[in-house]
Amino acid sequence: MEGVSKLFRTFGKRAKPSSTLPEELCRRFSLAEMKIATNNFDDKLLIGQGGSAKVYKGLLIDDCSCTINVAIKCVTFDWPRTEAPLACQLHHPNHVPLIGYCLDDQQMILVYEFMVNGNLGDHLYGNTNHHGPLPWKQRLQICIEVARALHYLHTGLKHTIIHRNVKPSNILLDEKWEAKLGDLGLSKLGPSSLSKALIKIESEVVGTYGYADPGYVATGELTDKSDVYSFGVVLLEVLCGRKAFQRSGVEEHQYLVDWAQKCKREGTINKTIDPCLMGKIAPECFKIYLDIATSCVRNEGNDRPTIGEVEVGLEHALQLQQSADAERKDGVDQYNYTIVE
Ligand SMILES: Nc1ncnc2c1ncn2[C@@H]1O[C@H](COP(=O)(O)OP(=O)(O)OP(=O)(O)O)[C@@H](O)[C@H]1O
Question: What is the pLDDT of residues 253-263, one digit of tens each?
Fold first, then answer.
């Protein structure tokens, strides 16, 4: 389970649970059903615990009397109740489908489809015993799918949604290893997505250390480019196999973004590649991917690409990798490259 370090969060007043939840859009469960599904919230079924919720693996019986695995997310009482109303309106293959919810005096619970292959962070940092390291093309495909999920949030709905918590533990993988973006708990509804006006929302600063857009942290001004920044950090993690933020000494903190930018400046960026990917990335693919990742984490939001541009760039990077692999001579299974900066 990933240690969560939120920046800081502003809690609303301890409100009575609202009844404006979408019963017509997804199923409402009783607390008794949730208790049965989780064996009375048995700790043995706990998958993980974030800053706002405990997530259990649960079992439900569907309409055809078949059992289905679900992820049951028990949200802290004080937490803003925006996740269910937003999640039930999403219809996109790269978002974790919400099955239903349970609203009780004591508890707000969300029921999601269970993602059998866990989260991206577990696979990048070897927290799972079941699989070896993710191959490069699979990592690229996952990134493309996450970019599509974000593109949908930013432009595919009536109103722009800014996710605000893009990070590997919120990128889940289904049985076909398809990526699904989860956890809309911190998401913020923006202006109409058709509006040409600049998306800028004054907002209390929330997010996770190492992923939050520095401009947003400094000013509280949230834009779609804040998600682009966080996604850029994820792209660097995928390439380097290193966490966004780590303590290197008692007082010393190291941010992946600073380190990657320094290595890029010094021309040593090829040394940052995850050791298990060495020689596997075609140079032309590497160049494009690195350009995308570093442009996403530029300091100024205006200098960052839109998520749509990122999506197209990543698709291009994957095509270049596939062509290079197809042209590679038999028997040669490593790319040799010196990176020219
Ligand atoms: N639908 C799901 N299927 C499988 N695992 C899930 C599902 N939803 C969440 N999880 C896992 O449950 C754990 C806790 O998730 P949660 O979103 O509450 O916290 P987090 O992402 O670790 O931190 P944060 O509170 O900052 O988002 C994570 O490991 C996450 O990958």
Answer: 688 999 888 88
ipTM value? 0.95
Annotated binding site for ATP: 73
As to burial, measured by CB atoms within 10 angstroms (0-12 exposed, 13-18 middle, 19+ buried), residue 137 is middle
Question: pTM of the entire structure?
Answer: 0.90
* Beta partners for residue 108, in sequence order: 75, 103
Ligand 1 pocket, residue 52 CB under 6 Å: yes
For ligand 1, whether the C-beta of 169 sits within 6 Å is: yes
| Single-letter code of the amino acid located at 15 | A
Which residues belong to the annotated binding site?
A: 73
Q: Is 177 left (phi over 0), alpha (psi -120 to 50) or beta?
A: left
- Using CB atoms within 10 Å of the CB of residue 175, give its burial: 0 to 12 exposed, 13 to 18 middle, 19+ buried: exposed
- b vs e for 34-46, b when ≥16 Cβ sit within 10 Å of the residue's Cβ? beebbeebeeebe
47 Cα to the center of ligand 1, angstroms: 8
Q: How far apart are the C-alpha atoms of 313 and 298, rounded to whole Å?
A: 16
Q: Bridge-partner residues for 67, per DSSP?
A: 61
| Strands annotated E in the chain | 27-29, 46-49, 53-61, 67-75, 98-103, 108-113, 159-162, 171-173, 179-181, 188-192, 201-202, 221-222, 245-247, 253-255
The H or E element spanning position 34 is: helix 31-37
pLDDT tens for each residue of 179-213: 999 999 889 888 776 665 556 777 677 778 899 99
C-beta 208 within 6 A of ligand 1: yes
Work out the number of other CB atoms within 10 angstroms of the CB of residue 159: 14
318-341: b (≥16 Cβ within 10 Å) or e: bebbeeeeeeeeeeeeebeeeeee
Nearest to 168 by CA among 216, 126, 220: 126
Answer yes or no: is the C-beta of 48 below 6 A from any ligand 1 atom. yes
